[in-house]
Amino acid sequence: MIDIKELKISSNSKKLVDISFTIKSSTALIGESGSGKSLTLKAILNLLSSSLDLKKEINSNFELNFNTIGFIPQNPFTSLSSMTKIKNQIFCSDEKKEEVFNLLDLPLEILEKYPSQISGGQTQRVVIAIALSRDIKLLLLDEPTTALDLENKTNIINIVKNLKDKLNIKILFVTHDIESIKDICDDIVIIKDGHIVEFGKTQEVLNKPQHEYTKKLFNSSFKNKQFRK
Ligand SMILES: Nc1ncnc2c1ncn2[C@@H]1O[C@H](COP(=O)(O)OP(=O)(O)OP(=O)(O)O)[C@@H](O)[C@H]1O
């Protein structure tokens, strides 16, 4: 379990984020634009701008650092170097490359290609492969489906679901799109203006949201969609 006991971020004494929550297995952090999701991820990754003030206390049974955390960004297209073959952007043994490519259903021929020669969905899967090529214990996903079309979005959601079942890694999935996490994350945390307004088991919160903000968020996300089980 990763216990974020205290995470406070402020800028010139303006409070931007003040939250605490736990990641037992897979947690979704949901909120509208500007609610503080990216700042939270950056703080966990130790990538917060030095102009911001941070108070952080996280308890976990492993050290949170570059080797133990994998990060999947919103836009995979800027993550890869365009002039370098994909095989030279993954730093692990050939056996490990093969293992993660098989896990992500990526053809091995892609290793010999340049990023411009593969599709958007494949690019996102390569970015996930790079994260999994290290022995990570926590996977952070920052709206990983935003830049993708519906088919690739469904694909990535299925892949992350599969990873969760197959690998012993914890997941923190940040998004404003509830649809993308409902089958992946066991727990859900709703964030508004840097504060948690509601949290609980995903299905329970989806079926019976308590806070007005959560209700509004769900209604706008799920207009005309059948999502509750
Ligand atoms: N470096 C910074 N200095 C000052 N304020 C900042 C800084 N970075 C972000 N903020 C402010 O902190 C708040 C939270 O920003 P954050 O980027 O975490 O939101 P978000 O929920 O990730 O939004 P989005 O979904 O649009 O990415 C916003 O009001 C933003 O303007």
Automatic annotation (TrEMBL):
Family as reported in the entry's similarity comment: Belongs to the ABC transporter superfamily.
SUPFAM superfamilies the UniProt entry points to: P-loop containing nucleoside triphosphate hydrolases
Membrane topology: Peripheral membrane protein
UniProt main location, coarse: membrane
Any one Gene Ontology molecular-function term assigned to this protein's record: ATP binding
Keywords from the UniProt entry: ATP-binding, Cell inner membrane, Cell membrane, Membrane, Nucleotide-binding, Translocase, Transport
The protein's name in its UniProt record: ABC transporter ATP-binding protein
